[in-house]
Amino acid sequence: MAPAIHYYCPCQSGESVQTPPPPHMASSSASFHPLHCLFFCEECDAVRCNRCVSIEVSGYYCPNCLFEVPSASVRAEKNRCARNCFSCPICRSTLQVVASDPPDGGDGRPSVSLSNVGEPPFFLYCNHCRWDSAEVGITFEKPTGLAAQLQKFEDSAPESLEFERLKEHFEPFLRTSSLSSSLSHVPSTSSHHLPTSSATAAASAALARDVPGVGKYNPLARSRVGRDRTANKDEMPEYKSRMEIGVLGQLGSEGDGSDVEALRRMELAEEIASLEQRWGNSWTTSLRTSDLRPLRIPLHSKVSKRCPTCRHILIKPEQKAQSVRYKIKLVAANYLPAMTVALPHTQGADAARRPQAKAPSASDDRNAGAMMAGKSYPFHLALTNPLYDPIQVRLSVQRMHVTAVTDSTAPEKARRTPFAISLPTSSFPVAAFAEAWEYDDDDDMFGLEDDELGLEMGRTRDKDGKGKVKTVGVLEKRANVTVVGGEVVIGKEARGYVKFNMLVSYTYRSDDPLPSEDGAGTPSRTVAKTPEVKTFTFYTVVDLGPILPREEKVDPDI
Amino acid sequence: MPPIRDKFTIHSRAVVCQDVELKGDITIGPGTVVHPKATIFAIAGPIVIGSGCVIEEAAIIVNRRKEVMRVGDNNLFEIGCRVECPSVGNFNTISTRARIHYTVRISNYCVIGAACLVVPTDDETLDDYTSIFGPAAERRTWSGRGRIQEADLRLKHAEYLREMLPKFNRLRRGDGA
Predict the structure, then answer these.
(1) For a 10 Å CB count at each end of chain A, is N or C smaller?
(2) What 8-state DSSP symbol labels residue A260?
(3) Please, how many CA atoms are within 13 Å of residue A381, restricted to the half-sphere of its CB?
(4) Distances (CA, A) of B176 to A337, A349, B5, B6, B70
(5) Cβ separation of A270 and B138 shorter than 8 Å?
(6) What average pLDDT does this structure show over A464-473?
(7) Quick one: CA dihedral A170, A176, A177, A181, positive or negative?
């Protein structure tokens, strides 16, 4: 696994705890995200991730024809495209409406010139796998309005009719109980946050709605859970289903008899539909590939994301389905420095291994990519500054408590400190980001034609070859990228992965005047002497990779 | 290895651009269009290409076996494909970046999808109307519906190219040994 850096979002840790969880635990990976997934709220000065932002749908569109569907018809069309967009049941690509071939002259060559419109019957044709809908018997008389033509067919399916009957049966009870429960429940559920949009208000009312037969869930008064189970049940008569349960099985949608017969008779593995082909259906269909039907393409939605505390919009896409731009785009990559980490000894080993004719022994190959217990390795951190002002960065390693992770036979001291990290303690500057055209043709600025952020292999390798050059400290500064080196010393009995939390705080000059302290969120806002300097702090986790034990034998862990 | 003797027999109605790399004993039939930067290597044995084929840029047609490699009529070799089969039929489509080994023989009306690797270890013949698609090179049989329209499109494609390519590219004339 390549070394990586992830950023911490405090949404999972509760309101009072601001430090990230210990990274060696598997559950803490939920709090750490790569930089490209994160957002940044300017009002709260805080990092937000996809789990904590509140999402609102801003529009629905078909990914194939890019037609924007108004939200009213989304429900009516069952979240699928109402025009001629179908997906091939075999390869899930888009189907094309084609006309049938004209009658053949008999010798294979087209005898008459083919007209533009083509001849009926029309059918759907997949250009990728060459499936066509005539194989399942679906043909059309007109090349437009196919969804409507198929709609009648879909609606008469027995599962669909059954579903309609169920909805009609439950509807009067849902309506009466939702009226009563929404009046009593809205005050209690608004303790968390006020749903400001009608969509979220409707959603919370729908969740709080009473379902007959299920006890009411009241988060504030848990003692009442078992009490009121049968309150609404006595009003509802028995539901009679439209057909016998066993009949559905014979139609091929349930398992059992017919499926077993088909499996016994099948010859090729391709006769059974794969999971990817089947799970797009609304209900279970038969297992055979020959029974797969084309489905209308499901709609996609464009969402806008808001900060959960201050309701500031973080992401707002443009209204048109074709455009991929955003009206508002507050992503963390525009505010936080992007960091990458690399272990130079692995890259050096890779490059050195290629010119050798004979590869070294297998264990060396494996070990060259990872770290061995009992040794110390340097690593490089490259920081890229996205702001137009230079920043001063200070790094510090968070102290970790490794408590009772491994088995009890391991010695006590190994568990406590499996590895030690040394990083530059003083703050170092990273230059401002400037557009490419602002640089003169200065070779020092760009160095080698290397697109990677900040890792210049030639230069650092020369440095290491010269002997004990400094490995901890600022190694290189180039444009808006600074590479700092650190060192990790791995204990002799260490196991697992080298992961540590790192606190990054950087100071920058901001243009807007600082308001009075509001104290919300993670950052520590310090007002320095000059009123324009701001400091922001965030946590990251640095994962350098696995540790290989010194002995080759497998030790009886677990 | 004996040196490869070049012997190109290019029909007068074929359109072969100047930039094409030809090597070995190659015969190109009437109406075939070979785009610039295509490569046809008849290294060990001769290659015979039929009429109406379209060989696009960066396509590689290679014959590394002693026997004749016969490519039929009206095939389409899209950009970047690599074909080594000993025999190809008519009206096939070999899509972009597909690779076909010398163990495979292709019949008629086959479609090899984009970036598919058809590399069986044993000798194999693809039946008519086989369609290979997907990253795992799954196969299925085309019903053949729409083949007349596709054949018509192929003819029009070749005709258009024969008309337009010479206006913008230099042509190579057939020369003897």
Answers:
(1) C
(2) H
(3) 32
(4) 66, 53, 11, 8, 20
(5) yes
(6) 58
(7) positive
Q: Which residue has the higher pLDDT, B17 or B143?
A: B17
CB A543, CB A5: distance < 8 Å: yes
The rounded distance, in Å, linking the Cα atoms of A251 and A258 is: 8
Which residues in A2-140 belong to E strands, given as ranges? 4-8, 32-33, 39-41, 46-48, 54-61, 68-69, 86-87, 95-100, 119-126
Q: What radius of gyration, in Å, describes the C-alpha atoms of chain B?
A: 15
Of the residues B74, B116, B131, B139, the best mutation for testing chain A's interface (the one with the most A CB atoms within 10 Å of its CB) is: B131
* Residue A519: per-residue pLDDT: 41
Task: Choose the mutation target among B73, B149, B157 for the interface with A, i.e. most A CBs under 10 Å.
Answer: B149
pLDDT in tens, A382-399: 999 988 888 889 988 887
Joined tokens for residue A214: 């299920």
Residue A439 is encoded by which pair of tokens?
């640089």
The maximal CA–CA distance of chain B, rounded, in angstroms, is 48
Q: Do B145 and A104 touch (CB under 8 A)?
A: no
Q: Rounded to the nearest 5 degrees, what angle is found at the Cα of A132, between the Cα atoms of A128 and A137? A: 160
How many C-beta neighbours within 10 Å does residue A494 have? Answer: 24
Instruction: Decide: helix, strand or coil at residue A223.
Output: helix
A81-90, A148-157, A333-342, B111-120: segment of lowest average pLDDT? A148-157
CB contact under 8 A, A101 and B147: yes
Please write the tens of the pLDDT for every residue from A104-128: 554 445 445 555 566 778 888 888 8
DSSP state of A153: H
Task: Report percent pLDDT > 90 for chain A.
Answer: 8
Q: Give the residues across from A142 on adjacent strands.
A: none
Higher pLDDT, B161 or A480: B161
Closest CA to B94 of B80, B117, B107, B111: B111
Tokens 């004993």, residue? Answer: B25
Q: H or E element: which one contains A547?
A: strand A533-548
pLDDT at site A244: 61
Task: Give the pLDDT confidence of A14-54 residue by residue, as tens digits.
Answer: 766 677 888 778 888 888 889 999 999 988 888 998 988 99
| CA–CA min distance B150, chain A (Å) | 9
Find the length of chain B: 177
Are A464 and A349 in contact by the 8 Å Cβ rule? The answer is no
Burial B62-71 (b: 16+ CB within 10 A, else e): bbeeeeebbb
Q: How far apart are CA A228 and CA A213, in angstroms?
A: 9
The mean pLDDT of A502-523, rounded to a whole number, is 63
Please check whether the domain covering A4-47+332-548 is classified as CATH 3.50.50.60.
no
**pLDDT-based confidence at residue A348 (cuts at 50, 70, 90):** low
B111: closest CA of chain A, how far (Å):
8
Could you report the predicted ipTM of this complex, rounded to two decimals?
Answer: 0.80
Residue range(s) in chain A whose domain bears CATH number 2.60.40.10? 4-47+332-548
User: What is the model's pLDDT at position A451?
Assistant: 42
pTM equals 0.69
3-state secondary structure of A86: strand
Alpha carbon distances (Å) from A304 to A206, A481, B159? 22, 32, 51
Partners of A393 in beta bridges:
A428, A506
Closest in A104, A131, A270 to B148, CB measured: A104
Tally of residues, chain A: 558
Handedness of CA A232, A236, A238, A240 (dihedral sign): negative
Residues of B at the A interface (Cβ-Cβ below 8 Å)?
A: 111, 113, 131, 133-134, 138-140, 142-143, 145-149, 151-152
Amino acid at residue number A316: K
Alpha-carbon span A140 to A146, nearest angstrom: 7
The residue written with tokens 């034998």 in the block is A553
Among A90, A108, A135, the residue with its CB nearest the CB of B143 is A135
